[in-house]
Specification:
This protein is about 70% helix and about 0% strand. By secondary structure, it is mainly alpha-helical. It has a domain of about 60 residues: Winged helix-like DNA-binding domain superfamily/Winged helix DNA-binding domain (Arc Repressor Mutant, subunit A, Orthogonal Bundle). The protein is elongated.
Length: about 110
Amino acid sequence: MARRVAADHYRRSSRHPAATDPADSNDVSDESTSTADDAATKRDDLDLMQSALTSLPLDQREILVLHRFQHLQHQEIAKLLNISTGAAKVRAHRALAALRDRFFQLSRRPSASA
């Protein structure tokens, strides 16, 4: 059941990605073009990250959502998924590496691990 709740939460949040509003920035300067460019770049990166995350297999997305977005500890994830704590750590590490590789693949930038 916890898996379904986490998956439902992820699906709902992926349908309505958080908006980034340049007006939220405390930097009010004459460099509005630079700020607009930075905001556009940040939005593009968020879109790429969302695409990379949705392209991962469900088990990897599940681990990432639980660990990185819901801030669960490895022990809590292990109990939810009925796996050992060590397996939860390994799966979280591998899922994060897969997300990073997919993000760089989508952005056509060389991966940091390459």
